[in-house]
Each structure stands twice: as structure tokens, then as C-alpha cells.
Amino acid sequence: MTDVTDQVDRNTGCCASRAAAAEGIPPVKASVADGASCCGGTAPAADAPVWRRLDWLLWGSAAIIVVFYVAGFVLPHDAPYGLGRFAHSVQKMMNVMWWGILVGMLAVGLIDRVPREFVIGIIGRDQGARSVLRALGAGVLLDLCNHGVLMVGAKLYERGASLGQVFAFLIASPWNSLSLTIIIGVLMGWGWMLLFLFASLAIAFATGLAVEALERAGRVRPNPNRIDLPDDFHVWSEARSGLRGTRFDLAFAKDVAKRSVTASRMVLRWLFFGVVLAALIQTTVPTEIFQTWFGATLLGLFTTLLAATIIEVCSEGSVPIAADLMNRAAAPGNAFTFLMAGAATDYTETMVLRQVTGRLKAALLLPLLTVPQVLLIGWLLNGAG
């Protein structure tokens, strides 16, 4: 199993997977700056041409946003070829999101100082409701995209976490990170953000418990890598020791600022791409058609699920599109479904889970258990909205 996961690590170069070091090996602190972003594949060699080393998704999306944000001050709304509508859509979204992005970057910088091994130590203990709750907490704490968190989940399974814990971790993590939660609150409203947050955590908790119940019933094979942590491992003692050893001075502030920029790259690249994609949808798809196909109906709900399954967009990129579903289609349940479907139906996630666990049945459990819950809650949210 180690060989499989290590192969995944080498093939992806993901910062999240590199950080999960094997037991007994000193931790390696890696950041996005060390290589490509978690959703961007391996980093080019240092002597590669500039055009290969450039993060085209990040800087291309950022350039489009800057150009059209400025153009929004001079272009009329009805400018030819939809350029005015596109510019004003970009401007409107960025005017709402800018402070959430800055606060989120600060949160990422602070969280990046927390050793990932500390989180993995919390999640890898005994089974049951408490262990699933710990997996939820770890999933929310790690500020990673759905592809980056997948590598951590694979490493957790290799190191002995139960399949139920891994599922709860994967479902809870992708957009429940602090940075994206703030942006969801800014774009969709804080009340809806809290509803989405608790609903997604409920799905993650229920799915984790269901998988562990299936394991106890003999329907799911237990993790062959299961191990017990030493009794002398005390999480809060380690935390207090780490805090006592931290000096909150100018060097600390500079380090957090640096981490805020480097560790936010994987979030920003997909978030900016999502803004461009959402502005393009707002420009090309009339509101009437949008409300018909993606409105607060059963057809709209299933169409949203289908679109989220087909569109391989990272969790950060899904947030602006989900906000468009909320605001233009007046379908909060569809927005929730679009956000959750990335964790529930992502085919990359299914294939990596199959490779890591060695069982297609175990990998297919994730969409089979989560999609019905997502659709039910989405339908209820549409009714409430």
C-alpha cells in the first residue's frame, strides 16, 4: 500500500501529500511554493523555460480579472460582444470578495504554521463517533483544495485511519476551510453559509458512521494498515508546548505574511479561475435560461449535479459558480449541491481511492452514500429558500 501512495505522491508532487511523512521520519514542512500547487501537477525543472515555469492558470486568470476590472470603469454595460457585462460581472464579484480573500489568506498563513503531523495524529486514533468527529475537525482545519486533500486522505489511509474517517475527512474538507467559508459568507450571506456548513458536516458525519457500521457488519473490509498510536501521545500537551515555543514578534509576522502568499496560491489560482468562469456564465447565459435549467426544481437540482460531475473544477473554483446559482437562479439547494458534488462525485477522487484501497467497491461507497444525502438536503434547501 505504501508503494501505491508513494507513487501517487511522486506523480502529483502535491504539497499536501509531501507533508504527510511516514511514521518515524522527521516531518518535512512543504508549501505550495516548493512545487506546483496541489491541483496543478508536478513543478517544472528550475532550468525549464519561463513559459513552462509560469503558473498560467493563476496569472492568466488574475490578468483577465485585472484588465476587465479596470475596463469596468469605462465600458458601458451594453458594450459590444458582451464585454461590458463581463467586465461589470468581474467588478461586482471582486468588490464583494476582496476583503474575504485577504482575511482568508491571513488564515491560510496562520494554519500553515500548524504541523500537518499534529492533525494526522488527531485523526488516526480509535474508531467510533468521536474518531469521526476528529476527522471532521481535521478536514476543516486543513486549508486544502479537493485534490490536495485527497492526497492527505490517501496518506491517512496508508497510516491506519479507517475508511469511515477518511470519507468524513474528504467530505468535510474541500470548501469548509476557513478561507473559503468566509468567501461563501460574503457572496451568499452568512445565514446560508452557516446552513451549508452544518449540513455538509452532518453529511460527512453520517457517511463516516455508516462506513464504520458497514465495516463492523463485515460488509467493508477493515483497513489492513490500522495501527494504534502510543499512549503517551498527548495532543494538547504538544500544542501547549508549541505555543510556548512561539515568539509573536516581527519575524513571526513576516513568516505569516510569506506563508499567506505562498500557501494561498492553490486557493487563489482556482478562485480566480472560478471568478472568470462565473462571469462568463453570467455574460453568455440569460437569467431566464439559467433559472429554467438550474432553478429551484428537481430538474434544476439534477442538472446541477450532472454539471458538477462533468466539470472538473477545483473546490475553490466552484464557489463563485455556486454563488451564481444562489443569486441568479434563486436556488440555494443547487448551490449547496454544486459545492458538495465536488467531494461526492469527483472521478479523480474515485480513481485515487480505488488505487489506494485496492478496492473499487470501497471507492464507489463515497458517491453512493453521499449523493442521496446531498440531493435530499439540496431539495429541502430549495424549498426553504
Automatic annotation (TrEMBL):
<feature type="transmembrane region" description="Helical">
    <location>
        <begin position="166"/>
        <end position="186"/>
    </location>
</feature>
<keyword id="KW-1133">Transmembrane helix</keyword>
<dbReference type="InterPro" id="IPR052923">
    <property type="entry name" value="UPF0718"/>
</dbReference>
<keyword id="KW-0472">Membrane</keyword>
<dbReference type="GO" id="GO:0005886">
    <property type="term" value="C:plasma membrane"/>
</dbReference>
<comment type="similarity">
    <text>Belongs to the UPF0718 family.</text>
</comment>
<keyword id="KW-0812">Transmembrane</keyword>
<dbReference type="Pfam" id="PF03773">
    <property type="entry name" value="ArsP_1"/>
</dbReference>
<feature type="transmembrane region" description="Helical">
    <location>
        <begin position="267"/>
        <end position="285"/>
    </location>
</feature>
<feature type="transmembrane region" description="Helical">
    <location>
        <begin position="192"/>
        <end position="211"/>
    </location>
</feature>
<feature type="transmembrane region" description="Helical">
    <location>
        <begin position="96"/>
        <end position="115"/>
    </location>
</feature>
<feature type="transmembrane region" description="Helical">
    <location>
        <begin position="362"/>
        <end position="381"/>
    </location>
</feature>
<feature type="transmembrane region" description="Helical">
    <location>
        <begin position="56"/>
        <end position="75"/>
    </location>
</feature>
<dbReference type="InterPro" id="IPR005524">
    <property type="entry name" value="DUF318"/>
</dbReference>
<keyword id="KW-1003">Cell membrane</keyword>
<feature type="transmembrane region" description="Helical">
    <location>
        <begin position="291"/>
        <end position="311"/>
    </location>
</feature>
<protein>
    <submittedName>
        <fullName>Putative permease</fullName>
    </submittedName>
</protein>
